[in-house]
Amino acid sequence: MKKVLIYFLCLITICFILPAIFTNTTKTKQTLAIQNTQEENTSVQEATQETTQGKYSKIKLLHSKTGEIEEVDLETYLCNVVSAEMPATFEKEALKAQAMVARTYTIYKVNNKKHDNSDICDSSSCCQAWVSKEDRFARWEEDKREENWKKIVEAVNETKGKVVVYNNQPINAFFHSNSGGKTETPINVWGGSGYPYLQSVETSGEEGYTQYASEATFSNEDLLNKLKTKYADIQIDFSNNESIKILERTESDRVKTIKFGNHNLSGVETRTILGLRSTNFELEKQSNQIKFYVKGYGHGVGMSQTGADSLAKQGSNAEDIIHHFYANVEIKDVNEI
Question: What residue spans of the chain are helical by DSSP H?
Fold first, then answer.
């Protein structure tokens, strides 16, 4: 009887217990193998993310007020730029277009250095605007801070590595606030031969923004004094209607040449001396003063930021916006160029 019982127990062990043990061991090995594979894939993915920007992963930023040079992560830097350059209230696709333009402009500056020991500075009058997260938060309403910052970070992350290229090279991606309905070609602003990808294009919907229209009024004396800071010998007979006169306009309807007494000035120079928002203006001579009616805000070259927002509101995505403002360009990952 004992022998029968022993045989019975052995049979159970062989038929049921041992297969279960081997099955669990196999499953454990498979599980460990899967986990190891997942960990390897994660490591590869993380490594890829770290090298996405390659040599552009870090940039040297010059803080113009202090002279300090700070090495910063490119994508983090772009969050600070986008938050400084474009209102967070703008459409997400407009912010994404701004992120691509800012990234392209930055890499263009890295490749064409203007500053000796840094890649780019934080001054909008020289390179592009930059503001720290803390300062940006201080300027936003408290209940909007986290929401605004999240929106900007998403715009940068969702376009990570994307740059605008012409002939496989990053373009000089100029942008401005408001074109007044039509952008300008660079030759009419800075001279030279211009850039083939920066053409004059029309954009609808910009008139709905506060940047679209402005006025500036000068007394005859103030106007003359301002002009004398550049031209000491200037003379204007304010009683003669021909003494101040717009002589020529560009194809985008901006002032190309204007007469002030015994001097003919460019529209660009006039805008600088008088502090006008753009060179797209009309003037009205009144009894003892001159009034300028101005359309648009900025030099007018490249992407109009309010134009980008207007296009986004009309259904355009970020890449559509880029192709609207920059002719014959491609959008590529920075590692592809």
Answer: 2-12, 18-50, 74-85, 92-111, 133-139, 145-157, 187-190, 220-228, 267-274, 305-313, 318-325
